[in-house]
From TrEMBL, chain A:
Belongs to the succinate dehydrogenase/fumarate reductase iron-sulfur protein family. This is succinate dehydrogenase. The gene is sdhB. GO terms for molecular function: 2 iron, 2 sulfur cluster binding; 3 iron, 4 sulfur cluster binding; 4 iron, 4 sulfur cluster binding; electron transfer activity; metal ion binding; succinate dehydrogenase (quinone) activity. Gene3D superfamilies: 3.10.20.30, Alpha-helical ferredoxin. PROSITE patterns: 4FE4S_FER_1 (PS00198), 4FE4S_FER_2 (PS51379).
Automatic annotation (TrEMBL), chain B:
It is found in: Membrane. GO terms for molecular function: metal ion binding. It comes from the Bacteria. Keywords: Heme, Iron, Membrane, Metal-binding, Transmembrane, Transmembrane helix. One of its GO terms (cellular component) is membrane. The chain crosses the membrane at residues 12-31, 51-75, 96-117, 144-168, 180-203. Gene3D superfamilies: Fumarate reductase/succinate dehydrogenase, transmembrane subunit (1.20.1300.10). It comes from Lysinibacillus odysseyi 34hs-1 = NBRC 100172. This is Succinate dehydrogenase. The keyword Transmembrane helix applies. Heme binds at residues 28, 72, 115, 157.
Length: 259, 204
């Protein structure tokens, strides 16, 4: 097949490797035969097939995470040439060489390019990023959502918890408690949902606690980095307004708990 | 400080930066500007402060300036040192503003501490704070540079801080309103900087 034919061209790759959690990291160079339409994942697969460095030394195959291969699952995120992004949609033809691959170090590195994104999932639990509908009897249909609002909310729902915004944010790090842009935007999404809004105050309370929305430093890197174009900074500013109102309600008292 | 109260501390930090610290800076630089009119005008303008009863002046200094300023400064140091700067990888305008806000903040802690030592503390020891005092300080060209950098850091930190204040309290929400706020706050930065720098240069 022409697409897999060896063109004779080679792709230079440099990978930041790490054998164990909290272990020492080191750069390793690879030269991989170029194929038409290659993405970063296919480079990694090639290295897995033939784990030999550019200077001919045998090494362990590189570890990375992947799943859907069509930029909707968020698992294969890594730092490619300094920018966090999905390795499945990072095409070799569009990257300058040598292609430098690093793990998203804002998360604990498990091994090589594989990171542990648990903090994002914990944050989603903390902010109750779901619509609670379970009860002891059939609650019936929820309130209708205006169509235009649904279309707008759909944009926020595109978040795939990939962690790119977390890596881009200067205030998110292992040492800081900030929950980061992605979980915050989910609060806005679920507070917009007509049934989800019935627990609006609980989500706002969650982001008014430790590491909440006030920890945002407005560098606005998240919105620049988000592969799904989610208006993260608008979400954060909207939550800033909502929490301001909630703060006054909490202090002065209000009989409007959720509306 | 309890981490559960972090939201309130951060909002307080944002508020105090504008009221009263920011307002005080505008007042302070405006008063300095009277130096453009010469030694006598400046001494008359600043001399008016002595008309306020001493005990009341001290109370006002602590309540309006020192306590809010110290909270803003010390909590700000904590905020500044929790950031991991990445302007090299993300060299957007806002990320630079984010970094500059923290750098100027740290510099201002040093500058303001030195400035208070050189003026207010000396006054407490009996030296008169007047035109001559400042003129002697900025007679040293290194001190003049230090003061100009200090003034520019302060005006930038306030102007950009106003922008963040508008976002942090949920006033500017849309990208377009945030863009307009950038232009307005940067114009404010330029105007206040001119006032501040022209004032300090007139002591030379």
């Amino acid at each position: 097949m022409e697409a897999t034919a060896n063109t004779g061209r080679m792709v230079d790759v440099e990978i930041l490797r790490q054998d164990t959690e909290n272990g020492q990291s080191r750069w390793e160079k690879f030269r991989v035969p170029y194929r038409h339409g290659m993405n970063v994942i296919s480079i990694l697969m090639e290295i897995q097939r033939n784990p030999v460095t550019a200077d001919g030394k045998k090494t362990n195959p590189v570890t990375w995470d992947m799943n859907c291969l069509e930029e909707v699952c968020g698992a294969c995120s890594m730092v490619i040439n300094g920018r966090p992004q999905q390795s499945c949609s990072a095409l070799v033809d569009k990257l300058t060489q040598p292609i430098r691959l690093e793990p998203m170090a804002t998360f604990p590195v498990v091994r090589d390019l594989q990171v542990d994104r648990s903090r994002m999932f914990n944050a989603l639990k903390k902010v109750k990023a779901w619509v609670p509908i379970d009860g002891t009897y059939d609650l019936g249909e929820g309130p209708r959502m205006p169509e235009r609002k649904r279309q707008w909310a759909y944009e926020l729902s595109k978040c795939m918890t990939c962690g790119v915004c977390m890596e881009a944010c200067p205030n998110v790090s292992e040492g800081a408690s900030f929950i980061g842009p992605a979980p915050l935007s989910q609060v806005r999404l679920f507070n917009t949902h007509p049934t989800g809004a019935m627990n609006k105050d609980e989500r706002l309370a969650a982001i008014m606690g430790d590491g909440g929305v006030a920890n945002c430093g407005n560098s606005q890197n998240c919105v620049a980095a988000c592969p799904k174009g989610i208006p993260l900074t608008t979400s954060i500013a909207a939550l800033n307004r909502a929490t301001t109102v909630q703060m006054f309600k909490n202090f002065f008292g209000s009989d409007h708990m959720v509306d | 400080m309890s981490k559960d109260r972090e939201f309130l501390w951060r909002r307080l930090h944002s508020l105090l930066g504008v009221i009263p610290v920011g307002l005080f800076l505008v007042f302070h630089l405006s008063l300095n500007f009277t130096a453009v009119g010469g030694e006598e005008t400046y001494n008359n303008a600043t001399g008016n402060m002595d008309l306020i009863p001493h005990a009341l002046l001290l109370l006002m200094e602590w309540v309006i300036i020192y306590i809010p300023l110290m909270f803003h400064a010390f909590y700000g140091i904590y905020i500044a040192f929790t950031a991991r700067h990445n302007v090299k990888r993300f060299s957007t305008f806002r990320n630079w503003m984010f970094a500059l806000q923290r750098f100027t903040g740290i510099f201002l802690v040093i500058f303001v501490a030195w400035h208070i030592f050189q003026t207010r503390v000396q006054k407490a020891f009996g030296t008169d704070v007047d035109f001559n005092m400042i003129a002697e300080i900025v007679d040293n060209p290194w001190m003049l540079v230090f003061y100009i950098v200090g003034i520019l850091s302060a005006t930038f930190h306030l102007a950009n801080g106003l922008w963040s204040f508008l976002v942090s309290w949920g006033i500017t929400q849309s990208p377009s309103s945030q863009r307009v706020a950038t232009f307005i706050t940067m114009a404010f930065f330029i105007i206040l900087s001119i006032i501040g720098v022209v004032a300090i240069v007139s002591f030379v």
